[in-house]
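TASK: fixed-backbone design
INPUT:
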């Protein structure tokens, strides 16, 4: 992207997030009815309303669209630039009234998430950035933490995964585990240096992680698949096996820690 193009993209993302926050202000977290999709994922009228306003604010001629709340017609595959959005990541927390949900917006260019914005409307936090411009947290420059060891690191874990017992295997790890909803919000906090790392061994959809991945990389951190390969977006099957993200110095320590758990999971899948 050119400098002018990048500035226009970031302005578009910020405007879309502000419009989404205005829409969400009409709903009360913890006092809204939810329907349930296949797989028992909740969806509310707020999800659908925010999806509509994001589509209106972001999409331009020649660009593709991938959203959790829009039927995927695969026309996006013919476009180099694609918006990958989750109108409300952390809907379970939204329904429960827990302030750990957000609006997540990413621009993907030739498979790479190059710009992103995440807004938590309850805490009034906006994370915005691109690979060339860096990241701002509530309009102030931010960067990933520079911690060089996992000892006493603040690692954010999925509340659902912890409740299912999936993080029990890390009980003896040297870091502090903090439960939190919304993978997008966790990645945003890592990008601003408000947490050191996050990871999940559970598959995630592109719309869950694209904006957060753009922010973490833009803030000088790392984000990768469980196989330690770069994330690629706008795939026909928009599902990623899992991810690892954190400050740049924690990449090797995290990969070393997780390797036996990843290998064990792969072995179980191959023998099941």
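OUTPUT:
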């Amino acid at each position: 992207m050119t400098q002018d193009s990048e500035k226009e993209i970031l302005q578009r993302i910020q405007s879309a997030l502000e419009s989404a926050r205005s829409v969400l202000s009409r709903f009360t977290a913890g006092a809204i009815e939810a329907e349930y999709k296949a797989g028992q994922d909740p969806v509310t009228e707020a999800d659908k309303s925010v999806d509509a306003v994001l589509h209106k604010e972001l999409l331009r001629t020649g660009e593709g669209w991938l959203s959790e709340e829009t039927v995927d017609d695969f026309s996006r595959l013919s476009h180099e630039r694609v918006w990958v959005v989750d109108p409300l990541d952390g809907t379970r927390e939204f329904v429960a009234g827990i302030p750990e949900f957000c609006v997540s917006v990413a621009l993907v260019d030739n498979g790479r998430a190059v710009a992103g914005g995440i807004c938590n409307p309850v805490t009034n936090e906006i994370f915005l950035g691109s690979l060339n411009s860096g990241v701002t947290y509530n309009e102030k420059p931010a960067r990933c933490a520079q911690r060089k060891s996992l000892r006493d690191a603040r690692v954010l874990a999925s509340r659902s995964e912890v409740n299912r017992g999936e993080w029990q295997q890390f009980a003896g790890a040297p870091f502090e585990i903090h439960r939190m909803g919304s993978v997008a919000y966790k990645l945003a906090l890592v990008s601003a240096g408000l947490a050191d790392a996050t990871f999940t061994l559970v598959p995630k959809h592109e719309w869950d992680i694209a904006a957060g991945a753009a922010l973490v990389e833009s803030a000088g951190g790392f984000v990768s698949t469980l196989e330690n390969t770069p994330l690629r977006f706008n795939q026909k099957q928009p599902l990623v096996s899992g991810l690892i993200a954190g400050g740049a110095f924690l990449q090797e320590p995290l990969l070393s820690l997780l390797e036996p758990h990843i290998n064990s999971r792969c072995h179980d899948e191959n023998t099941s």
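COMMENT: The chain has two domains: 3-142, 154-271.
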